[in-house]
Amino acid sequence: MAVTDVAIDRIKEMILSGALLPGGKLPREVDLAAQLGVSRNSLREAVRALSLVRILEVRQGDGTYVSSLEPEVLLDALGFLLEFHQDASVLDFFGVRRILEPAATGLAATRLDQPGLLALRKEAEAGAAADSVADLVEHDLRFHSMIAAGSHNPVLAAVLDSLAMPTSRARVWRGLAEENAFARTVNEHAAILQALEARDAELASARALTHIAGVEDWLRRL
Questions:
Q1: Do 161 and 101 meet the contact criterion of CB atoms below 8 Å apart?
Q2: What torsion, rounded to 10 degrees, do the Cα atoms 182, 215, 88, 99 define?
Q3: Would you state the pLDDT for residue 88?
Q4: What do you get for the CA distance between the two ends of the chain, in Å?
Q5: DSSP the chain
Q6: For the chain, is the Cβ count within 10 Å smaller at the N or the C terminus?
Q7: Cα–Cα–Cα angle for 166, 207, 126, nearest 5°?
Q8: Same domain? 24 vs 134
Q9: 137-151 pLDDT, tens per residue?
Q10: How far from 92 is each of 87, 166, 210, 211, CA to CA, in Å?
């Protein structure tokens, strides 16, 4: 298990045990990192991931707090997963991505220049080397943004970038909750990159569709 995931689990245990109460403030970063036995960088990654799913709330200049959680949510944070099921808007965002992103990826296969492909490969490799779900999601966001920009259609790229953040929390949850989601994401990025490097627009588009639809399907099954 990655060190960041250890930090996430230990913070969760503190909430469940009552050591951290809903609405309560976390100890100073240096003190909490020592208490959990992790580095401050790993703790920051854990806080960032838990903030994305609203378990923690970072208040600039004040500190980090536990969100106001219902008791059943504290058991396994299932309430946040149910929130996605109850609010269909995030599925609407994925639906639009599923339509537009394969088209952008197909365009990028014919329009990305060699320096652009090299930069995309470096980003994919950085994502594969990520040591936490939050880190991988950041690389995932950049990977897709670079492909959208590679379509050389600034309007299409801008629309896709605007859709990225509303779906980022679902990506984090999938990484935390679904077995092998981390490896699947890395492998699917590699497959998309391979098609782009081969200048195969049809294959690149199909692989992008499979990648986006996989997260959407997981979310629907909740």
A1: no
A2: 140
A3: 57
A4: 25
A5: --HHHHHHHHHHHHHHHTSS-TTPBPPPHHHHHHHHTS-HHHHHHHHHHHHHTTSEEEETTTEEEE----HHHHHHSHHHHHHHHH-THHHHHHHHHHHHHHHHHHHHHHH--HHHHHHHHHHHHHHHT-SSHHHHHHHHHHHHHHHHHHTT-HHHHHHHHHHHHHHHHHHHHHHHHSTTHHHHHHHHHHHHHHHHHTT-HHHHHHHHHHHHHHHHHHHHH-
A6: N
A7: 65
A8: no
A9: 889 999 999 999 999
A10: 10, 10, 17, 16
Task: Please report where in the chains the tokens 């537009």 appear, as a residue.
Answer: 100
Q: For residue 143, give the CATH number of its domain.
A: 1.20.120.530
Contact 51, 58 (CB under 8 A): yes
Cβ atoms of 83 and 74 closer than 8 Å: no
Give the number of domains in the chain.
2
pLDDT digits (tens, 9 = 90+) for 157-213: 888 887 777 677 677 767 766 778 888 889 999 999 999 999 999 999 999 999 998
This prediction's pTM = 0.63
Among residues 74, 92, 115, which one ends one of the domains? 74
Domain end among 74, 91, 115: 74
CA distance 10 to 16: 10
Which residue bears the tokens 């959208």?
148
Residues found in the chain: 222
User: How many C-beta neighbours within 10 Å does residue 68 have?
Assistant: 11
